[in-house]
Design brief:
Low-confidence stretches: 481-491
Number of helices: 15
CATH topology of the largest domain: Aconitase, domain 3
Strand content: 5-15%
Largest sheet: 5 strands, parallel
Radius of gyration: 25 Å
Strand order of the largest sheet: 7-6-5-8-9
Number of domains: 3
Length: 491
């Protein structure tokens, strides 16, 4: 969280984040995994830690001791190089590092817990906490769930339970089965937790939320890694914050953002004040992991005889048809569909929520293309001008009108276009609706590989011409015949 605040969501683009130092040995293997997972939020190519005994213990506990033994043979090579020079060196004193809460609307707006109340008041963020959510792929290890359960136990020992709605998403079937066996799951349920499926869930918008109306300002807090506008519940007015599972449980217990568990007391069932005890939890289960239910379904041995049949009337599944190959010609005087302003994440480009049911139907899900992007011409989302008619319509509708008339178009983006999930629909949809190129100041790493397969991408660190592009204006592109782009365009 702290590093995201320092580097921002684009500060790690093109870089490898290497963590080292004496503090590394104090972290669990799954804790290191969580930190590396968050590297995606700063645009890093990858993140890594030096190999150590905590990793070996985890590999052994997960029945991969042979891998751990092999890594030990090369232990000297699996560390930072002595005397290595780095492009940037950030030093963090773990004994002084405060817990942070990041957000809303972006994972790099970092605030230490000691200053969070002031930030809530200064920014007029909704103080009441509506929902707390832990789990999903990030922060859902045995250690995370154990620490969360220890806080819940402490609260219930004082006669308290969650004030806000509380959801728990186990990170895997193995984690779910293990914490069910060892009792943490029951504790979290008794605390008020709703146990969700071992899947992405609210983190990617698979959440049928009904406690607030769309457009109603409210606050939620999660231990997920992304908190873009509307991502979790399709409500752009939801102020989503991200932090550790420990803080999520503590804040959910208090039911307010104006609570610092390090300094603020709570009142027990008898009205007496008490302080929450520091959370505790083992990094690995003492009795080993329980693999849980075996739900794997093996594919047929003879796959050549299998035919996939999709009803042509289905609104959820559609056979993909190949895109037309590039005709080898330059694109001259083509219209600008939208000039996006500011943050344009994959959630702005292809929203989740109720749209996820169309992930297998490219034409239907394309009706959400860029509906969350802010139009620089009017400061509004999903309102663009048709250069032929002058009428203002939704972005997908305007793109479809152009496509119907045989007109290719481009999108003008801003910095770090495509930040967020590796959602291939954010690349497929523009191509499907007739888009030729996405022209931006820069692309986020996680999406930069995908769009070049499906459409042209053009980026420049210095992009003064962006200011010259106007709504319903035009642009021209001269392709480099010798570039790899020509090959990619024919895929």
């Amino acid at each position: 969280m702290k590093v995201a605040g320092i580097l921002t969501v684009k500060g790690g683009t093109g870089a490898i984040i290497e963590y080292h130092g004496p503090g590394v040995s104090k972290l669990s293997c799954t804790g290191m995994g969580t930190i590396c997972n968050m590297g995606a939020e700063i645009g890093a190519t990858t993140s890594l830690f030096p190999y150590n005994d905590r990793m070996y213990d985890y590999l052994k506990a997960t029945k991969r001791q042979a891998v751990g033994d092999f890594a030990r043979e090369y232990n000297a090579e699996l560390h930072e190089d002595e005397g290595a020079e780095y492009d940037q060196l950030i030093e963090l004193n773990l004994s002084e590092l405060e817990p942070h809460i990041n957000g809303p609307f972006t994972p790099d707006l970092a605030t230490p817990i000691s200053k969070f109340k002031d930030a809530v008041e200064a920014n007029k963020w909704p103080e009441e906490l509506k929902v707390g959510l832990i789990g999903s792929c990030t922060n859902s290890s045995y250690e995370d769930m154990s620490r969360a359960a220890s806080i819940a136990t402490d609260a219930m020992d004082h006669g308290l339970k969650a004030k806000a709605v509380f959801t728990v998403t186990p990170g895997s079937e193995q984690i779910r089965a293990t914490i069910e066996r060892d009792g943490q799951l029951k504790t979290l349920e008794e605390f008020g937790g709703i146990i969700l499926a071992n899947a992405c869930g609210p983190c990617i918008g698979q959440w049928d939320r009904r406690d607030v109306k769309k457009g109603e300002a409210n606050s939620i807090i999660s231990s997920y890694n992304r908190n873009f506008t509307g991502r979790n519940d399709a409500n752009p007015a939801t102020h989503a914050f991200v932090t550790s599972p420990d803080l999520v449980v503590a804040m959910t217990l208090a039911g307010t953002l104006n609570f610092n568990p390090l300094t603020d007391p709570l009142k027990d069932k008898d009205g007496k004040e008490f302080m929450l005890s520091p959370p505790t939890g083992e990094g690995l289960p003492a009795r080993g992991y329980d693999p849980g239910r075996d739900t794997y379904q093996a594919p047929p041995s003879d796959r050549a005889s299998v035919q996939v049949q999709v009803s042509p009337s289905s609104d959820r599944l559609q056979i993909l048809e190949p895109f037309n190959a590039w005709d080898g010609k330059d694109a001259l005087d083509i219209p600008i569909l939208i000039k996006a302003q500011g943050k344009t994440t994959t959630d702005h480009i292809s929203m989740a929520g109720p749209w996820l049911k169309y992930r297998g139907h490219l034409d239907n899900i394309s009706n959400n293309m860029l509906i969350g992007a802010i139009n620089a011409a009017n400061g509004e989302a999903n309102k663009v001008k048709n250069f032929q008619t002058g009428e203002v319509d939704a972005v997908p509708a305007t793109a479809r009108e152009y496509k119907k008339n045989g007109i290719r178009w481009v999108v003008i983006g801003d910095w770090n276009y495509g930040e967020g999930s590796s959602r291939e629909h954010a690349a497929l949809e523009p191509r499907h609706l007739g888009g030729l190129a996405i022209i931006t100041r820069s692309f986020a790493r996680i999406v930069s590989a995908a769009p070049v397969i499906y459409s042209a991408q053009l980026a420049a660190k210095s992009f003064p011409a962006r200011n010259k592009f106007e709504e319903a204006g035009h642009a021209s592109i001269e392709f480099l015949r010798s570039s790899r782009l020509r090959q990619d365009q024919s895929r």
